[in-house]
Design a protein that fits this description.
Elements (H helix, E strand, L loop, with lengths): L1 E5 L3 H13 L3 E5 L2 H6 L5 E5 L1 E2 L2 E2 H9 L5 E7 L3 H9 L4 E5 L3 H19 L8 E3 L2 E4 L4 E4 L2 E3 L3 H12 L4 E3 H8 L9 H14 L3 E6 L3 E6 L1
Bound molecules: calcium ion.
Calcium ion binds next to β4.
């Protein structure tokens, strides 16, 4: 994990560098706003808002454009307005001088945890399974026995609805409401037609039972 310390006070910067390196971080330091925006991308920027050559908040806004970089602002005691402005400008957290090493490290860890979650790839989706029919809701794909099955949009929605309630009777009204939305005024034969098409595509891998006068039930075979 790389950290950039933006701090014009040499003494403060030295203390920070020592503590952060000791904690195992790779740390670089710059002393001006100009150098801060030019610095190579890092995981966390520790940004002193009181810089000699420019407004720390401008640096913050600039850094904010690089997604994935967490920013912790450093302000002097009593500068509440700066802290608030910093948070409004997109800082992930702040520390107030003088701060202890333990507090700083805890805040860095917390911020890294949050941004990591934020940056992480979405977890692989757990598909729905009935028999050897597997349905991925987000990707809107279906496989049967490992082979992709081509469905129309409505057929997919129908199958997803029934699979989510495998073994239960799903009423016609509910299906129409969910798949065609409430403003649907087509004859109810439309549902029968789609259901017939879906059944024929699924073959005998699963069974869609008709429950007379009520609706449908999907069962594994
Ligand atoms: Ca300063």
């Amino acid at each position: 994990m790389r950290i950039l310390v933006v701090e014009d006070d040499d003494r403060v910067a030295r203390g920070l560098l020592t503590a952060l390196r000791h904690a195992g971080y790779e740390v670089h330091r710059v002393a001006t706003a100009q150098d801060a925006v030019k610095a190579a991308p890092v995981d966390v920027v520790l940004l002193d808002l009181g810089l000699p050559d420019g407004d720390g908040l401008d640096v913050l806004r600039e850094l904010r454009k690089r997604s994935g970089t967490a920013v912790i602002t450093v302000t002097a005691r009593g500068e509440e307005r700066e802290r608030v402005l910093g948070l409004r400008a997109g800082a992930d957290d702040y520390v107030v001088k003088p701060f202890g090493t333990a507090e700083l490290l805890a805040r860095i860890e917390a911020v890294l945890r949050r941004t990591r979650t934020h940056r992480a790839e979405p977890e692989a989706e757990q598909p729905m399974k009935t028999g050897d029919v597997v349905l991925f809701t987000h990707a809107r794909t279906v496989t049967v026995g490992g082979q992709p099955l081509s469905l129309t949009r409505k057929e997919f929605d129908l199958l997803a609805l029934l699979m989510a309630r495998t073994g239960e009777v799903v009423s016609r009204d509910f299906i129409v409401d969910q798949v065609w939305q409430a403003h649907w005024e087509a004859p109810s034969r439309t549902l029968d037609t789609h259901m017939a098409a879906l059944r024929s595509k699924l073959g005998d891998h699963v069974r869609i039972e008709t429950v007379r006068g009520v609706g449908y039930r999907l069962v594994g075979v």
